[in-house]
Write a structure and sequence with these properties.
mainly alpha; 12 helices; about 0% strand; globular
Length: about 260
């Protein structure tokens, strides 16, 4: 290996270590025997995981976050896929302005978007309901689906859709039998992004959620205000393990990643 190659490997290793260091610290502190997070951890125990699983508030918050993420992801995938298809296939005036409009929730600070949605839902009488919270999360996550699906559509040959229509397939038949299978990687990538963002969302949820809609991020937020034990590290470690166990196989199987 040349000197420049060695330097490149060293620099990349430092960058990766810098990015992974917070995760390593969180995971390590989840097993410490001390009553507060400390790194390096002292001893080894699973009692913080047991406390997490034994606390009904955390379990109910996780269930709600999971159901909420599923609902908002379903809405975001449906809206985002059709919107991306319209932006990619139909050339209309002010297309750039329309694209900027549908992607604008990415640009807005969470506190601004949360306040705007709170005012809107109060005016419509939907504030504090589960579906208003799901709609708010869908507003936040749909732009990510649009971007992912548009990337897949950019690699799709339109002649394949034309051939399907020439053979007698209608618009919906062409979409479900030809277009959707070919853009599946983008749709799945957008769904994964939408689910994770919705599950972890805190700022907008604080504005929209009613008293009976306390998600896991809100539980964690309120817990750390009054306690500093490693239970939160145990929750974070559990979520990291779940994301790796579920996300990596899905990404590898459906998004074109293959091990050589």
């Amino acid at each position: 290996m040349s000197a420049s190659g060695a330097v490149l490997w060293l620099v990349n290793g430092i960058i990766v270590l810098y990015l992974l260091a917070p995760i390593v610290v969180v995971v390590a502190t989840a097993f410490t025997t001390t009553a507060y997070p400390v790194f390096p951890p002292r001893g080894f125990t699973l009692k913080w995981f047991a406390k997490f699983m034994a606390t009904e508030e955390f379990r109910s918050g996780m269930r709600l976050s999971f159901v909420l993420a599923l609902a908002s992801t379903a809405v975001a995938v449906a809206l985002g896929t059709l919107t991306a298809l319209a932006l990619a296939r139909y050339r209309v005036r002010a297309l750039a302005a329309l694209s900027a409009f549908v992607l604008s929730p990415i640009l807005f600070p969470g506190i601004v978007l949360g306040l705007a949605l709170l005012i809107y839902f109060h005016q419509t009488g939907l504030a504090g309901s589960f579906w208003s919270l799901a709609a708010a999360h869908a507003v936040l996550t749909t732009p990510f689906v649009i971007r992912m699906v548009m990337a897949s559509l950019g690699e799709l040959d339109p002649s394949l859709e034309e051939a399907a229509r020439n053979l007698g397939a209608g618009w919906w038949g062409t979409f479900f039998l030809v277009t959707l299978p070919l853009i599946r990687p983008g749709v799945l990538a957008g769904a994964i992004f939408a689910f994770i963002i919705s599950f972890d969302e805190l700022v907008i949820t604080l504005f929209i959620a009613g008293p009976k809609l306390t998600t896991l991020p809100i539980r964690i937020f309120t817990y750390v205000e009054y306690a500093s034990d490693p239970t939160i590290s145990a929750i974070s470690t559990t979520l990291i393990a779940v994301w790796i166990a579920v996300g990596v196989p899905v990404y590898t199987r459906f998004l074109g990643v293959r091990h050589r």
